[in-house]
Amino acid sequence: MAEKIVQVPDMVTVGELAQTLDLPVTKLVGELFKNGIVATINQRIDVETAQIIVEELGLEVQLVAEEIGPVARESRHELSDDAVERPPIVAVMGHVDHGKTTLLDAILDTKVQEGEAGGITQHISAYQTVRNGRSITLLDTPGHEAFAALRQHGATLTDVVIIVIAADDGVKPQTVEAIKFAESANAKIVVAITKSDKDTANVDRVKSQLASEYQMNPEEWGGDTVMVDVSAKTGHNLDKLLDMVLLVADMEELKADVDVPAEGIVIESHMETGKGPVVSMLVEHGELKPTQFVVSGTTYAKVRTLLDYAGRPLAVAGPATPATITGFKEIPSFGDRFIVAKNEKAARSLVEKNRLTQQHEAVHSRVTGSDLLRMMNKSDETQDINVVVRADVQGSLTSVTDSLKLMENDELNMRIISSGVGSISENDVRLAQSADAIVYGFNVQLPPSVKRMAMRTKVSVRIFKVIYELLDDMKEVMESKLAPEVVETPVGKLKVLGVFRTTRDSVICGGEVLSGKITPSTLARVVRGKTDVIAEVEVKHVQRQQQEAKEVFEGEQCGLELKTQGKLQILEGDRLELFTRELKARHL
What we know:
Number of strands: 30
Distance between the termini: 47 Å
Strand order of the largest sheet: 7-8-6-9-10-11
Structural class: alpha+beta
Helix content: 25-40%
Radius of gyration: 32 Å
Mean pLDDT: 81
Strand content: 25-35%
Low-confidence stretches: 68-75, 110-124, 142-155, 361-380
C-alpha cells in the first residue's frame, strides 16, 4: 500500500502532530522519550524528527513540510479607500547590556541636534523621531509590560523590529528570543550591530553567526536581511539605520484610517500624585484629541491632558503616535484595547457592557471549595504551576528549565512563563505577580530594590546555588498543589429496627450493631436492600439505655441521631454502614 502523504508545518508541536496522525499524545511523547527526546505536548519538533518517530511507530505516513506563502499581517480594522500613509512602528529589542537604551538615546539626541526636544524618561516606553521629514515611532519593548501585551495581542502594531546585537559580544539568549518574536509577529527585521567602535568589536563574526545559525544572511553577502553596524557613542551610521528602517517599512505600504473613532492599545499606566492614572497609549487608527471620551476595558476617561512622549501638549495624536493622557477613573490594564466613544453616556454604556462580560467570564471560570467530593473529582484536571527562572549562565538556565519541565505530571503542568540569564529584575516580579508565579534564581543576585518590591507584592522569590535543592523546593510546591487523597476507614454496621422521629434535617432511629462498633461524629451510608445506597448522613449522637454513649459494640442495641441533607425517609430494615473520611497529603 502506498504511503499516505501528510503536509505539516516545518516546526510542529507534539500535540498538533498527534492530532494530525490521530494518535494519543502520550504515545507520541513516549516514543520521543525512547529516542532520547524529552518533549511536552507544546514542544515543537522539526519535520525530520517527526518523520523518524512516525517510522518508529510503523505508520505508513510520509510527512512533508507545507509551503508557506507570504502571511498577511493581522488587522482588527478593515482599511477604507481613504486610508492614509502612517509612520512605521518599530520595536527595539535585544540582549541586556547590548546597548538598546543607549541606541535609543543616541537616536533621540540626533533629534535634539536638529533643534527638537528629545531624551528618554523612565516612565514611558514609546518615542518618536523624525528622519527626512518622516516620523518613526520607537517602542522600547524588552522587559517592559507592553512587550508582553503586544505579543499577547498578536503584535499587530509592530511593523519593524530592530534587533540590537553588540559587536563585541555576539548573539545571546535574548537575541534569539527577539528573532523568534519578530518572526512570530511577521514583522520585518533590521539588525543593528552596536558598539562597532570598540577595539574588541567583530562585526563580521556577528553576521556570520546570524547567517550560519539563524539563516539571516546580510544583504552584502547576497541575503535579504538588512544589517547596519552602528555606534551610539560616536553616532556612526545612525542616519543609515533610520533610512533602512524607512526603506523596509515602505515595502509594507503602511496605512491607517483617520476619519474614524480613535482606537489603539494601552502600553503603560501608573498612578501619579496630583494627576491620578497616567496612561501611555499607541494610536492605531483615528485621531485622539483632548476632551474626547476614551474607553479601555472596564474604565473610561474624559481626556484631560494629551501629551507626546516628551511631555509636550498635543492638539491631536494621529495613527502610530504614542501619547500620554490623564483623566481615567481607574488604571486600565497593560495591553488592553482602547476606543473613543461618542459621549459620556456611550462611554459608560460600553464600560458596563465590558464589566458584565468580564463578570460572566469570571463566574464561569470560578472553582468553589465548599464541596469536598467535588474538589476531589477535579483532581484529574491539569493545574498550571507558573514559574519565572533566572540563572547565571545559559548552560545553567537550560539545566534548570529542563529539570523543572521533567517534574510535571498528569495533574500538574509546569509553565515557565519567562526565563533568562542575569539577575532577577523588577519586571520579573511584575510578571510573576500578574501570573501568580514563583521566581526561581540559580546562582544570581537579588537586588535590594527588587527584594523590597517582591515583599510588597507578596511574590515568592527563591534563590539557590545547588540545583537539587531548587528541585526539592519545587517538589514541595507541587506536593502542596496535589489534590489530597480521600481515605475512608470502615467503623461498623447497624440494622435499623425502628424510626422514632423524622425532621427536615435529622432522623432519630434505633437499631442493632451487626459488626464493628458505632461511635458519634462519624459518617454513614444508608443502604436499602442488598446494595442500594440512598443517602450519606452524619452520626451526631449515640445513646444506649437512654444515656449518651461513646461506643456501642457488636450485638448491642442503641439509639442514633442522624444529621441529613434535607428530609430523608429511613425505613426499618435499612442498614447503616459507618465510616470515617479524612484527607491525606499525597507525595510525588
